[in-house]
Amino acid sequence: MSYQIEFRHIKYFLAVAEDLHFRKAAERLYISQPGLSRQIKQMEDDLGVSLFERHNRKVILTKAGEYLKTELSLNVKRLEHTFYHAKLLNDGKKGDLKFGYVGSAMQEIIPSLLVAFKKEHPDVIFNLKEMDNHKQIEGLLSYDLDLGFVRLDRVPKELEIKPILKEHFCLVLPHDHKLNKENFKGLYQLREEPFILFDPKYSATYFEKVMQIFDDSGFPPIVSHNTIHASSIYKLVESNFGVSIVPKSLIDRNNKQIKFIELTKIKQKTTLSMVWNRHNRNPILHSVFDFILKPAGK
């Protein structure tokens, strides 16, 4: 079977599939509406399928159209990345790596990683963005991200996940709180205090693990605030709105208004994992894997 589909047909189809409106898509593509309609009709005739149901006031994707939209969107993005990396190589760069990360990974892990990796690979461009776990997964599936650092136990089957750091939780208290490392016995001492926690939308699995800590301590927490930023947690704790629990990697040693107590005697720990799309063909990605996962001292 021979198809006469050209790249422009794919671009035109995706524009209409996204807008579900021929006039709006034509304006965005800077072509006439009749011309766009002809190109789509030509594509449908050549494929032998109907891509859209056309009604007086709306356009609807057929099942074949929905399938093509999903698959072509991903493949076009891969092709754009291929062209982009070819241009980088032409310009003397080894590649571009797009990182997503949860805030706790930026305290020590990512900065030390980037500094060390940059020494070995000075011609790599890095793009970094703090994102919650869910947004990172979306970005990895759509190829908008190359590598993510998340606090998740499971990821979609298209992705690979590798734990890189398992750490204790820490209590966060105002600097003048009566509890300290010497007189702290257990979380039950804080059963009457309000807690400021990471929003469950930030990571449902992380939130569930924190709830297990309270279950094992024998009381449900009084949650006064939920937030997605550690800086917001610390400001609220400073202002005596409550106490909190965070991963050890989020300890802020420069903030004298709060103090931390590491929870070394509880069974729960939190894991930071590296996650990526197994189909990602970014040429620099495996160099990063080798660098991060190589044994210390080598």
UniProtKB/TrEMBL annotation:
GO molecular function terms listed in the Swiss-Prot or TrEMBL record: DNA binding; DNA-binding transcription factor activity
> Which top-level group of life is the source organism from?
Bacteria
Matching Pfam families: HTH_1, LysR_substrate
InterPro entries given for it? LysR_HTH_N, LysR_subst-bd, WH-like_DNA-bd_sf, WH_DNA-bd_sf
Is Signal among the key words of this record? no
- Domain HTH lysR-type: from-to ranges: 5-62
Q: List the GO terms this entry assigns under cellular component, sorted alphabetically.
A: protein-DNA complex
Q: Which keywords describe this protein according to UniProt?
A: DNA-binding, Transcription, Transcription regulation
TM stretches of this protein: none
Q: Which SUPFAM superfamilies match?
A: Periplasmic binding protein-like II, Winged helix' DNA-binding domain
PANTHER family, sorted: HCA OPERON TRANSCRIPTIONAL ACTIVATOR HCAR, TRANSCRIPTIONAL DUAL REGULATOR HCAR-RELATED
Q: Which family does it belong to?
A: Belongs to the LysR transcriptional regulatory family.
What is this protein called in UniProt? Answer: Transcriptional regulator
Species the sequence originates in: Flavivirga eckloniae
